[in-house]
Amino acid sequence: MNWKKLLKTAYPAAIVVAIYLLTILLLKGGLLNKYYIQVMMFAGINIMMTASLNLVNGFTGQFCIGHAGFMSLGAYGAAIITTMVFDGKNIPVLAQTPVFLLGLLVGGCVAAFVGALIGLPSLKLKGDYLAIVTLAFGEIVRAILRLIKPIGAARGMIGIPNYSTLAWILLFVTLTLYLLKNLIYSPYGRAFIAIRDNEIAADVMGIDTTKYKITAFCIAAFIAGVAGGLYAHLLAFIQPDSFSFVKSSDFLVFMYAGGSGSLTGSIVGAALLTVLPEVLRFLSEWRIAVYAVVLVVVMLYRSDGLVGGKELPFMRIRRGELYEEPLFARKGAKKSPSAQDR
Amino acid sequence: MSTFLQYLIYGLQLGSVYALLALGYTMVYGIVGMINFAHGDFLMIGALGTFFIAKLFTSFNIDGTYPMLIVAVIILIAMLGTGAIGVGVEAIAYRPLRNKPRMIALITAVGVSMFLENFPRALPFIGPNPRSFPTLFKTVRYSFLGASITSTQIIMISLAAVVMVGLYLLVNKSKIGAQMRAVSMDKDAAALMGINVNRVISITFFIGGALAAVAGICYASVYPQVEVYMGSWLGTKSFIAAVLGGIGDIRGAMLGGFIMGISEIFATAVNSTFGYAVGFIILIVILLVKPAGIMGKLTKEKV
């Protein structure tokens, strides 16, 4: 492998490492404090959630408005493994990492399994009706979690070890984006986009729409589950009510404000809108009202989202490597009527 | 038997609140094709507005209640005011996005909803604390087959029923109703036939807001507490009710509202969390059997 090519493939990772080192340096230098780090970690988790939601809503053209449900399943799954199965606070330091990773994996798998179950009704339901079922799903998950006594019922789980560090979160964000980017440029991704643009045409072209829709749901749910696991081990406390419809709508807002059908949009949307309420803290009680106004203004004047469906160079596979032109880098062209517009 | 009847009364009363809100959702959906997530907050504005309007009329207050005529005036002002806010929201936030993908309007609606909840919350004279809603009528308790029903409940359920019948007649018999139905079928064709589409949509939002105000008054008279977040979960449930009945269909919204209300009361009697979830479970079951809701017509996609 020649150096140029290695550099080309490795530089996004180098950016992440640079961000990490810079943050640590600034932290040591006293320019940043723990609070900034925590906001960064929440932004990372939100990026994972938003990017995975984008796979379902932005790239496959389905409507999932209950994404926090998957997050809660992952959070509880991971927390049960680390806190109840292994008693996370008292295990030796060396064993912590494997236990943490096992927890995240289990959380992700639980969410993905349920994602497949939710994907099944998408055989029958379309558009808004599917959206309502996912909303209902999120609320039912919350109601069920509220009823289970061993995991704290409505009061939630406490005493979860805080294993999530900035390094872990950056690693998982990078892995998520890498996975999604490659997925979208794979035959699978092409199929997702075909389904989004016209489901009937995709079907006629021989794409097994059901299979691909369920795949999209499963992958998104898995990522959301892992993000939920990270969230649980960051806050050290989870309760069913923190994963309500309000949370789901947060991710929707991040995604559409950033730009649907664009991973860069998800990064920008989630990062900016996580940081914005924190920046606005000086407004005290006016904070959320101002945030809402900013959101409405963004949607009115930049309806395609902040980045408008474009991708940063390292978020797409470069020209000549796979295709002549990325299919969904819309260059100002009006999108053909898609499932989303109907 | 008497317990059953008692629950049925509570169910009817909650159901009428859901039905009134669901009507707003379903009309906006049927005509503009968007889910107005801020609709639940219109209920809050109606209830909160009534609280302040009733304060203005304090001088008419006789031992804790108001004369019938004043109550009617208060309700009318609340309806007009909330309807006007609905029209304003549509003109400012939704109209510019009418030809954009629907999800964009939905996200804007989420933003509007956040604003409507948090703006009053930040205003010093409203604030985040719940307030107790004034008693508008003298409460008389009647006993009926072992169950008790208050005059407030009777008035509120009948008010909701009158409003619903009125709306049904408006949409199906009047000229503006015919225009609404035309716009919901095909906006462009309706415009070509000389219908002022913007006006029809404004009127739809006005009616939706006014109905939400009535729902807010009905709800707050029975559960006498108003606060800025009261609309959000009531809104979600009414929306579920609208989908359950078949979104876009007026009879469906009424039916869905009552199904939600009655089932919720009966399920809450078993367990409060189950009471919260039962509506969603019914929704999923019904959508799996009838993918377009009870009254909804499934439109075949044209290729």
Mind explaining what this structure looks like?
The complex is a heterodimer of chains A (about 350) and B (about 300). With about 350 residues, chain A is an all-alpha fold. Helices cover about 65% and strands about 0% of the residues of chain A. The longest helix of chain A has 27 residues, at about 95-120. Mean pLDDT of chain A is about 85; it is low at about 320-325 and about 330-340. Chain B is built from eleven helices and four strands, in the order H-H-H-H-E-E-E-H-H-H-H-E-H-H-H. In chain B, the strands form two sheets. In chain B, strands 1-4 form a two-stranded antiparallel ribbon. In chain B, helix 2 (about 40-55) packs across helix 9 and helix 5 (about 150-175) crosses helix 6 (about 175-185). The model of chain B has no long low-confidence stretch (mean pLDDT about 85). The chains are: A mainly alpha (about 350), B mainly alpha (about 300). The interface between A and B is large, with 45 and 46 residues.
